[in-house]
Specification:
single chain, 4 domains, six-stranded mixed beta sheet, GTP-binding, alpha/beta, Rossmann fold, about 575 residues
Length: about 575
């Protein structure tokens, strides 16, 4: 199967009519030259792995259309008897790439023949190896065949099914913080023994592309396809963020439909109004510790849902069985005891810390400690022995609820809620900027194609206009920066200091053409000094598709990095 056309049909028809109107004689040749230039920029990426590894689902997620779980039974059907033929796709956000969804390696197939046949379909420049779990013997043989066939090609390894592995780990009581490194180690160690050194191993869920390592995988592909070494995908995620996905979705919805320039004002308003962002606190108490009385003292005796005064979005849940509490379902855990914690509560505390959840402890019979101070000493020693020495402990009294440190506990809960909401900002801003980057990169390809058809002077104006439009999309133009500075009560220069990309500022067409023009040859420079009539003119620089697309795509990536810095600074609450 051949790759899809590099130029869209609508663009071909429009361009053919435009060139024919200018000069019908040379129009076909110009169109063929443009198509050849576009074909030369294509980067073929092979996505392969064993059957049922999820290669097709991964490709669909990279195309922006992740599979939906409409029919749960569809994910448990046996594989088709006839494998799906190789299918090439062009990602809308990366038009110069061709993702090949290759059929999976069957258990009875010879890995060497499989790899030789599939890697001969196109001049692949990058490999994405998809594995559903620890590689078996046939998978390792496939890796060795890939090494023998394409050792020099960069390779990304994707471990699918991270969401299912997370669910299983939680049911078995394993710590979530160690899950992702374990998933990668299950794959990396056998691959290392087989001699494969990938660029990275990403643990992803094709059903939830916003979670786990999918953003890292996307950045790595953009870097390899566009050959942009300045784009560093960063470190792989080592643990799940402390902020729950529900809070992330709520903040994302706040900014839905708005531009990046409007995001700081919307996010700051949402964070200032605690009622918009729910924070759930699990209050779990030892028998006889009076945790129900503590909730009443914190929230008042009003019936209904327990909400903290002054923080209407913070809800306290009265729980008694520590063995059935899932810390990942709550933003914060408050554990109460009258003396020392029993083993179920210690396990829950460890699980909360491992899940990245905030943890507060309270001893509710401090009035007894006044008569016998050895009790509080025993609790502190226990926390040190259990590796929980940094956990904050508040001293309270069930008999005198308003005495001792109840006010400090109420303030700590409100501060933790605000801190959790602020911790979501980097994740939210990353998602918002990534959404705009996809659109700008897709537009860069179309703009580069149009620029190549224009005269030199018009091409310079077209590129300058495209760069200014990209800067406005990322909120880096002066009007957007001024709006964000006013919303954040910052000086304009504080936001401008976050910008590194030279193309984010107002640029002149001559500056763009000068940056793209190749250096004149030695012969051209020598001829320029010949003082007689008829000397050959110095060749004028030409705007090629490669130069135009590289400039626009590199500027899009650099502006996206600048936009993250600007938005983080503008969203910081003073």
């Amino acid at each position: 199967m051949t790759a899809p056309p590099v130029l869209p049909r609508s663009f071909l028809a429009e361009t053919e009519a435009l060139l024919a109107a200018q000069d019908p004689a040379v129009a076909p040749g110009q169109l063929r030259a443009l198509e050849g230039a576009a074909k030369g920029l294509q980067v073929h990426v092979a996505v392969l792995g064993p059957r049922r590894a999820g290669t097709s689902s991964l490709v669909q997620a990279l195309l922006g259309s992740p599979p939906r779980l409409h029919d749960p039974h569809a994910f448990f059907q046996p594989p088709p008897l006839t494998p799906v033929p190789p299918t090439p796709h062009v990602p809308p956000a990366l038009p110069s790439a061709v993702l090949w969804d290759l059929p999976g390696l069957g258990p009875d197939e010879v890995p060497e023949a499989y790899v030789t046949q599939l890697l001969g379909l196109a001049p692949f420049a990058c490999l994405v190896l998809v594995l559903p779990g620890p590689p078996g013997g046939n998978d390792v043989a496939m890796v060795r065949a890939v090494q023998a066939r394409a050792r020099a090609l960069p390779c990304l390894v994707v471990r699918t099914g991270a969401d299912l592995a997370l669910h299983t780990a939680k049911r078995r009581g394993h710590t979530i913080a160690r899950l992702l490194p374990q998933l990668r180690a299950q794959v990396s160690e056998p691959l290392a023994r087989a001699g494969l050194k990938p660029l990275g191993i990403a643990a992803v869920s094709t059903l939830e592309p916003d979670r786990f390592d999918f953003a890292w995988l996307e950045d790595a592909l953009v870097r390899e396809v566009l050959q942009l070494p300045m784009l560093d995908p960063g470190d792989l995620l080592e643990e799940l963020p402390a902020v729950r996905e529900r809070t992330l979705r709520a903040l994302t919805e706040v900014c839905a439909g708005g531009s990046l320039a409007e995001a700081p004002g919307l996010l700051r308003a949402a964070l200032a109004d605690a009622s918009q962002l729910p924070v759930d606190v699990a209050v779990v108490g030892e028998p006889g510790s009076g945790h129900t009385s503590l909730i009443a003292a914190l929230c008042g005796n009003a019936p209904g849902i327990h909400t903290l005064p002054g923080a209407p979005g913070l809800t306290l849940w009265d729980l008694s069985d520590a063995g059935t509490v899932d810390p990942s379902r709550y933003d914060l855990l408050l554990l109460t005891t009258s003396n020392v914690y029993r083993e179920p509560f210690i396990r829950l505390a460890r699980a909360a810390v491992a899940a990245g959840r905030a943890l507060i402890m309270a001893r509710t019979q401090v009035d007894v400690d006044l008569r016998d101070p050895t009790g509080s000493v025993g609790l502190r020693e226990q926390l040190v022995q259990e590796g929980l020495a940094e956990t904050r402990v508040f001293l309270l009294s069930s008999h005198e609820p308003q005495a001792f440190e109840l006010g400090r506990l109420r303030q700590a809960l409100a501060e933790e809620a605000a801190g959790l909401q602020r911790a979501a900002l980097p994740v939210i801003i990353g998602r918002l900027v990534r959404r705009e980057r996809r659109q700008v990169l897709a537009e860069a390809w179309r703009q580069a194609l149009h620029v190549c058809l224009r005269p030199m002077e018009d091409a310079g104006h077209g590129l300058a206009t495209a760069l200014q439009a990209s800067a406005a999309t990322f909120g880096l133009d002066e009007a957007s920066l001024t709006r964000m500075a006013m919303a954040a009560k910052l000086e304009l220069r504080e936001l401008q200091a976050q910008i590194r990309c030279p193309w984010a500022q107002m640029v002149q067409p001559s500056m763009v053409l000068e940056a793209m023009a190749p250096s004149p040859s030695l012969a051209a420079r020598l001829w320029s000094y010949v003082p007689f009539w008829g000397s050959p003119s110095v060749p004028q620089p030409q705007v090629t598709l490669e130069a135009a697309y590289h400039l626009l795509s590199q500027a899009a990536v650099e502006m996206a990095l600048d936009a993250e810095r600007v938005l983080l600074r503008a969203c910081t609450l003073g």
